[in-house]
Write a structure and sequence with these properties.
The chain folds into three domains: 119 residues, no CATH class; 105 residues, no CATH class; 136 residues, HUPs (Rossmann fold, 3-Layer(aba) Sandwich). 69% of the residues lie in helices and 6% in strands. It contains 14 helices and five strands. α9 links the parallel β1 and β2. Pfam families: DUF218 (PF02698).
Amino acid sequence: MGSYFSIIIGIIYLIGAFMIPTWRRKKVNQDWKFFELLWFSLCFIFYVIYLEIQLHTYYYLIPSAFLLLFLFCYFKEKRRLVNGLLFNLFLVVGMTYLGILLVRTNDPLLMVLAGITGAVLFLLLLIGLYALLVFLYWNAIVVLRKEGHSLANLLTLLLAIGLTVFLIFNFYSTRILPQWASVLFGILPLSMFYFSIVFYNFLTISIIYQFNQPNYNQDFIIVLGSGLIDGKTVPPLLGKRIEKAIQFYKAQSRATLHPPKILMSGGKGDDEHIAESIAMKQYAIEKGIPEESILVETNSKNTLENMKFSKEIMEQTFGGTDFHALFTTNNFHLFRAGLFAKMANLNANGIGAKTAFYFLPNAFLREFIAIVMMHKRRHLIVCGFITLMMILLALADFFLVSHN
């Protein structure tokens, strides 16, 4: 009976997987990847529940509770870092549960998934850090070649050099340092481990936030500005933000015949001839957007001001606060922009424009550093605790060795 059910579930899944792209092609928003992932997850959850029912147990309720907690917090407020932590807690509990279920059932599908997962984890443990180093050095060379030698473009290179120095020193530290000093040196790897967890949670929620699917009922689309080339020309990175807004503008126009206003947000920098929003408006007009559909905000100097000043313009234009709005930016900047929207009390989520793959590692590192600085007090407290703990252990080791 179990094998027949597995075959039936497999057939149902394959039928759905083939039908989803066809179904999405008939929609205004033709993206199908999110729905493929959702369909696989639903089929797999249903299959796991069936296995539990066969055993007359209900342990699946434990990971389900973590999943529901994440979904409740996420849909209540998508723009929170804690959502990444909640999702990763669900993954840890879920993977543990599936491992126990595999031992109890010896199910072939679970065996295949466990084998794939085990192979990936083994490779990560075996060569993960060294592969990361090679990737970081390669990425740094590409970024410096294509984007220039600014400090912001050096982040992957600096991280690669830092990790290289750490690995070399960590290899020799036990040979050249006394025991108490080696314990004290543990401050660095523990702090790195803490920040790697923080980064993983940030990356998790940043990726999940990319799947935001706004309804076609928007009154405004805010396009967040960035620097101009020669103080007057829209660069490709900013152009993608504008084109993302235009894409949604046209999609909503086809779906509802009620096009939103596009609000270009960006002031004039010290090295710019015109306000960014003016150049952005001209760019959109050249792409076929009517001038009357475009608003401009010309005073902001950063993302938080983008949100605050845009909110004021939307309230004046709409004649109240009961409007629907979203913002567009590049995908790596999407989640942090959402945090700024929340800080500005603007009820808006974002959609991200695609960015060249080579630029993403450096860009996400920059975003992570900015988010760490937004919560620096919390991180200083944790790092201070780690430092104090290791100092006490080093002192204990020093006096115990001296005493002996």
